[in-house]
Amino acid sequence: MRNFLEFIRTQGVVGLAVGFILGGSISRLVSSIVNDLINPLIGLGLGKYADLKDIYIPVFNAKIGLGSFLAAAIDFLIIAAVVYFGVKKLGLDKIDKPKT
Predict the structure, then answer these.
(1) What is the pLDDT of residue 97?
(2) CB 42 within 8 A of CB 36
């Protein structure tokens, strides 16, 4: 049991768990912003679409969901920017530098 607790303390497992929980929450928040605010505004800006997810390319009997892909790309870019600037602002990028 002592070795297990030492592993938890030295390997930052608690920090990793907190990161997963916060990452999931941020992901849901950003997805809601993209799906509920940004996508409808882009759809309205394009004219005939009420939502970005309504945009598709018909190929024979199939519908290629271009709007869904664009929504996922916007979602990814926002989350990546939040993580990047969060890591830079908090100085976390300097923690894992190799010691020379």
Answers:
(1) 54
(2) no
